[in-house]
Structures are given as C-alpha cells and as structure tokens.
Write the structure tokens for this entry.
Amino acid sequence: MKIKIGIPRALLYYYNKDLWINFFKYLNFDVIESPPSNKKILQDGETLAIDEACFSLKLFLGHVNYLKDKCDYIFVPRFFSIKKNEGVCTNFNCLYDLVNNSFDDIKLLHYNVDLTSKRVELLGFLKVGKTLGISYINTYQAYKYAKKIQDENLKIKQISQQNLLKSNNLKILLAAHPYNLYDELSGRPIIDFLKKLNITIIYSDLLSDELIDEECRKISKDINWTHNKKIMASINYYKDKVDGIIIISSFPCGPDSLANEMAIRKVKNIPIITLIIENLNSDIGILTRLESFIDILSQKKEEVYEKSN
C-alpha cells in the first residue's frame, strides 16, 4: 500500500503546490490535499488556535485537522529565510512546532529553508527523501522534475497576465499573499464577484521576481519581509497600468498592517481600497464595499475617456 502524504490547502500551499505535489507524485506516493476552505474547517481552526492568531493561520490549523486521520504523514515545512538578508512571517517559522504541539498522535513530514544557516530548499527535499526511504539520486531527480514544472507554470501565468494588461476593460490589481488571494473563504468571493462584472484581474503574486527589489525600493528600502516586498513591488509596478488596486489582508497580520499602509501613503494618483478578512466578516459587507469602489473606478474611467475624445 502506498504511503499517503497529506498537504494542507493553506498558507505555503499557495506558493509551492506545484513543487510539492509533483515531487511526491514523481516518487509514487499518494497525495491527499485538504479540500477548499469551508466554514467547518474554519471553525475547527478557530478552536485549535489562540485568539491572537490571524485568520489564515486559523484556516491552516483547520486544514491540518481535516487531514489528521486521512494520511500517513502531514507535510508541514518550516520557512525562516528564503532570500538572502530577508525573512518571512513568524507564522512560517513556527508552523511545524505549532502543529506538532497542537495535535496528538500525528506524524509530520517537513523540511527547513533558512538561508541564514545555508539550509537551501534542495537540502530540505533531500532530507524529506531520506525520511521516506528514497535514495538521494531519486530524490534529486524528483525535485528537479517538480521544480521545472513549478517554474514553467509560473512563466505561463506571468505571460498570460502581461497580455491581460492590453485589455480595454476595467483593470484591477488584487494585491495580497496568495493564501489570501486564492482561498475559498477570503479571496475567491472577491475574484468571482469581479469576474461577473467582466473586470480584468491582475494578480500581485505573478509579478516577475526580477522586478521586486527595484520596484519595492521606490516605496521603501527598509522592508525585509520577502512576501510583503512582492506585494509592495506589484503595487508600484502596476499603479500606472490598472484603474484601481484592492489590497486583501488577514486580520491581524502585523507585516501586512505596516507594509500595506506604507504602500498606500507612498503610491499616489490611483484609487486603493483595503479589505481585511476576519472571522466575523460576511461576504455581503465586503461585496458592498467592492460595489462602491467599482462605481468610482468606472466613473473615473468614463471621465478620462470623455476628455480624450
């Protein structure tokens, strides 16, 4: 019987799902992903988390809870630094320990990425392979195979997004971490709402890595959170290419509260709205604010069109 690897559909999943899933499938393991977030998963996560935990971390714990009796291992990597001289949210630093201490009789599979200690991604995957009884050669081949798919899929999405910028429709940048953008309870209702209105959506996570440092420095030289830098860079890069910007954030995210506020203050001449996702939010409240924001953008775009003609 194949070993079953459970992958929670939350947090780091939205950055690395192509890499993780294809790595384990190449090695002939069964991969079990938790389902898209739902109210039951959120409720379970709220029960397990401390009150101060952000919405996204509560969701993560709910996804782990869903998987705990359905697989042999649950995959929970630990990220500390993924880019030289930069860090990530402390939740990513402690995920493994948090899950390990929150659940009894659970087998975790993990790797560490910490460039400050020269723990690079490849070494982490080699450790995972060793834990599962896979040779270094086969593990290395699986990693290279999965990494290639991850890079190719990202490139396709980035090219597609560049083409969307040519659209004459109302264009809106959704600026957020991928786990807020694409989760079923946070970003998905917003995306679906905008698509129904035939709005062209530009996603912050698809900004090319080559542009991040240059664009982020135009807002701040002091931000060293890797994932927030990408959001800030995308806001600055796309500010002249879209009609408006929607920032989506989990409550109460510390890095977001600082970085988003800094971007709003520094980036001028573009309408920006911030949507904070928390436990008590309802779709109705968020969608009402979106309707008002879109009305403003549409009116502004029409005025610009009339002046040019």
Remarks:
- The chain is about 50% helix and 15% strand.
